Amino acid sequence: MDKTFRIVLVVFAVLAVSLVGVVAYSLHNLQRAHRSAQWVVHTHAYMAEITAAVAALRTAEGALNAYLLSDSPAQEVAFRNAFAELAERMEVAKAMAEGDGQEAANIADFEQALLTRADRARALLSAHRAGETESVQEQLWQEDEATGLTVSRLAQRIIVRQQNLLRERDRIAFEQDAAARTTLHLGAGLNLLLLIVAGWFIRDGLRARQSEADSLMRANAALEARVAERTEELAQSNQQLRTENLEGRWKAEALDHQLRYNHLIIARVASPIIVITRALNISRVNPALESLVGKTVVDLVDQPLQQVVTLTGSEDVPSTLDPITSALRNGRDLTDLTAEVKLSGRQAIPVLLSLYPLQDQDHVVGGVVTLQILPA
């Protein structure tokens, strides 16, 4: 994954996060605006119920006063309907005030004032039914203005509080709308900026890719020229190697012939011959030695030399193979050393031992031991 792709991927990831954030914030604002609209509708409906309740009270009291003065059945129906409407309005208002402690207290005070007015109306009706006309007229002329003012004042207090809440809600809604507009503008600007950055990186990446493609084409052309040149060199080298391999095969065949001739020569020598390693182990023997000791090549190869040949010394010099070890180390010849050859199942016979070290580039790698059988 190249650098341009990673940068574009990061830019689009940030762009996606920004879009998701803006959409989420917009949905939140819509839900908040919907709840605010519901609250505003509820508040206006609540204020309308309070206003309607006051109007119903005034209508009911007016119809009641007219009924008390005229005994009109129509007025009786009117005030009864008005009081029923008042009770209905109050039930609705109390239901709408639930959930707000302050408003529940205000509506309770308002309801208590209305109950006071209702008690006055019931008292007037009771006096009227009892035929106390003078008492009714006296109560009508002595209107309880304080109670009526209390009802109006409490209703006004409720309405004023709701209007203040509406104004506060309008202010908060305005601030929220301003914040939402700012957020949307910033989100749109950020998204546009990110798109511009992504476009710039894509264009820069395309230019870089085109430059790399041109460089690759030039490199391919140069490489093809080098390959053609190298192919020609390899063809010449291959021809030279074939020639050298042919010469090497001829040399190997010549060397093989030489080794076979050497083996034939050693095998044809009548005297026993042993080829040893630097560690004094037998590596090759000729048929004369096999016939002498009564063992085959398989039995003799890799065996120590002293198991076949033992040097014999004078009375004051012990028998040892150290002269052979010293001669191999120093690369010098040994001739006519007295020794004995151990025979299979027979008595050892005396021989004269000669050693000729074998050297490979000034390093002794072994030696050739020749044995001359002495007469008994």
**Rg from Cα:** 66 Å
Distance N to C terminus: 94 Å
Secondary structure tally, helices: 8
Total discrete domains: 2
Structural class: alpha+beta
Q: How many β-strands, per DSSP?
A: 6
Profile the largest sheet.
6 strands, antiparallel
Low-pLDDT runs: 314-320
Q: What is the residue-averaged pLDDT? A: 82
SSE series: HHHHHEEHHEHEEE
The shape, in one word, is rod-shaped
User: How are the strands of the largest sheet arranged?
Assistant: 2-1-6-5-4-3
- Bin the helical content: over 70%
Our estimate of the beta-strand percent is: 5-15%
Descriptive report:
This protein has 376 residues and is α+β, with helices and mostly antiparallel strands. The protein has two domains: 3-205; 269-373, PAS domain (Beta-Lactamase, 2-Layer Sandwich), CATH 3.30.450.20. Helix content is 73%, strand content 11%. The chain contains eight helices and six strands; from the N terminus they run αααααββααβαβββ. Strands 2-1-6-5-4-3 form a six-stranded antiparallel beta sheet, with helices on one face. Helix 1 runs antiparallel to helix 2. It is rod-shaped and about 190 Å long. 16% of the residues are buried. Mean pLDDT is 82; it is low at 314-320.
